Structures are given as C-alpha cells and as structure tokens.
# Entry
Amino acid sequence: MRLLLGMALLGLLATAQAEISITDAYARATPPGATVGAVYFELHNAGAEPDRLLSADASAVAGRTELHTHTVENGVARMHEVPAVDLPAGETVLFRPGGFHIMLMELKRQLTEGDSFPLMLRFERAGEIELTVPVKKLTLLHHHDHHQHGHGGQPHH
# Structure
C-alpha cells in the first residue's frame, strides 16, 4: 500500500513538473569585479492548478540567489526580494528587467558571454526543475531601465 501511495505521489509530481516550462532563460554578462547579476526567463504553467516559485539556487556562480521584483515608490524604482512568485494556472509570468528576476548575489566569478551555469528552481507543487542558463553579451542600460538601483548603482545586469 505504501509503495502504491509513493508511486501515486511521484506520478503527481511528474505531472506537475510537466505542466511547468521555462523558456528564453539568460543572464547578462557582468563587468569585471561585479558582485551581482540577474537571470531572466519566461515561466509557463500549462496546468489546471496554480503553482508558486518558492526559491532558486545558482550556487555554482553565486553565494546567494534571491527572487526579486521592482516597485515604484514616489517615482523611484526600487528592487526588493519577494518570498515567492505566484504562477496562475494556464498563464505565463515574465522574468524581465524592470520586473521579476532571479538576483545572483555574491558572484563567485565574472559571468562572461558564451558561458552557462545551472539554475535550480523550486516550486510548491512541481518540486525542483533544473535548467542551464546561457550568459549573453552585456549591453548598455537604457535610461528608463532602473534595474541597477538598489544594488550599489553598478550596471551589473
């Protein structure tokens, strides 16, 4: 009976994982000496049940990995950590500059164009999903991209 229950739970987890997909993942290359970076992607939930992204882990390149978003208070854009990101059933959540993103803190090395690293995402229902994040060329930030605010003002991602 326990074996059947365990197999049923594994089946539910596999189904939940199959319903979650991550596309267009990338990190921006960082300048020498940068201590922070960011990861962006599209998070799709094709399932009939909502899920939540609870945490991320990029320990191969960062001492800490946090879920972040932007808010605007009194006309000033600020970045801050969030405890989780809701992923409604049948919807896509964008992780983009100026919105949700995975913040890489205490970088262990420079992120260089053409490099890649593993990122583990932990979901409430789907469990852990690992992906490989390619590093893309560092581009100049546009004036309206306030992504650097709140982390020492470095153009870091």
Q: What stands out?
A: Confidence is low (pLDDT under 50) at residues 3-15, 142-157. The CA atoms of residues 148 and 155 lie 6 Å apart. Residues 2-136 form a domain with the Immunoglobulin-like fold (CATH 2.60.40.1890).
